[in-house]
Design a protein that fits this description.
This protein has 106 residues and is mainly alpha-helical. It contains four helices and no strands. Its main location: membrane.
Length: 106
């Protein structure tokens, strides 16, 4: 079970990579950012599918998207000029809290 959670965590990190990478593809008109983004997408989906051999679909999918949403939002605010506000930070905190509850439950 522990390996499945690590695999799911890695899938979430690749989701962050492809979500951020999308910005740099400029509509998939730039070759290398597009290759990176599609490769990260494939890795993310593959790792998710491996984790789903063990973990429940609802829990795994929610955690996977939560990792991606949280990480992408943080990178956007820290490095890409996205606005930082208390409501955004509270929202990220709620997502992280939800991930922790789902992890504890299953």
């Amino acid at each position: 079970m522990g390996m499945a959670w690590l695999t799911l965590g890695a899938a979430g990190l690749f989701e962050i990579a492809w979500a951020v990478g999308l910005k740099y593809t400029v509509g998939f008109t730039r070759l290398w950012p597009s290759v990176f983004t599609v490769s990260a997408m494939v890795a993310s989906f593959w790792l998710l599918s491996v984790a789903l051999k063990v973990l429940p679909i609802g829990t795994a999918y929610a955690v996977w998207t939560g990792i991606g949403a949280t990480g992408t939002a943080i990178i956007g605010m820290a490095f890409l000029g996205d606005a930082v506000s208390l409501p955004r930070l509270l929202g990220i905190g709620m997502i992280v809290g939800g991930i922790l509850v789902l992890k504890a439950a299953g």
